[in-house]
Inverse folding.
């Protein structure tokens, strides 16, 4: 298997799932038929921004993980893979909690409209609830992060590292600097030896080498 291509596919899937989370967050999750004490019943649209506000941060975290995966070392890739698993669990949890109790998920907007904060009273105001497919899509997208993260952890050793070229350049620079230093030392030693030989030649001819 070409793990270089697999790395590309993994990054693409991570990016796609993160985009889906943000898309779900921006869509309508529920439609509530609500009757207020002073008004007739009305249909109220509840978006993911109200029902699951934390999904925006989780989606952005997915983008950050994608960017880090493209440059990370093997150890960091495994750590980021485990973060994908945790991220998926949180997304599924948030989506399921909102999906299972639409009135509780919409309580902030209901309180803003009715000035009633008691959840039990708010439940009496809601006549009917209709869920859209977006909470389910968010939960499925989050659940896909879990096997993706596991696969990333187990295949990280065969991905290679995004910083290998940089590390190789740094290593080459260090070798070049070391070689230059060794050449300079050798040249200095050669110059010192030449001076010593000249001094002995001068003495052998009866000339004081300290006199310029």
């Amino acid at each position: 298997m070409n793990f270089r291509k697999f790395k590309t596919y993994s990054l693409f899937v991570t990016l796609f799932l993160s985009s889906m989370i943000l898309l779900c967050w921006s869509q309508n999750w529920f439609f509530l038929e609500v009757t207020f004490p002073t008004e007739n019943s009305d249909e109220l649209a509840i978006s993911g921004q109200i029902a699951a506000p934390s999904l925006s941060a989780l989606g952005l975290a997915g983008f950050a993980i994608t960017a880090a995966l493209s440059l990370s070392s093997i150890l960091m890739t495994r750590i980021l893979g485990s973060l994908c698993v945790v991220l998926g669990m949180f997304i599924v949890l948030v989506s399921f909690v909102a999906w299972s109790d639409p009135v509780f998920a919409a309580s902030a907007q209901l309180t803003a409209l009715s000035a009633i904060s008691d959840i039990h009273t708010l439940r009496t105001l809601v006549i009917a609830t209709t869920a859209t497919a977006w909470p389910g899509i968010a939960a499925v997208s989050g659940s896909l992060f879990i096997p993706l993260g596991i696969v990333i952890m187990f295949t990280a050793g065969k991905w290679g590292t995004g910083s290998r070229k940089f590390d190789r350049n740094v290593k080459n620079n260090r070798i070049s600097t070391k070689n230059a230093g060794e050449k300079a030392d050798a040249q200095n030693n050669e110059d010192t030896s030449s001076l010593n030989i000249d001094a002995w030649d001068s003495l052998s001819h009866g000339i004081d080498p300290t006199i310029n």
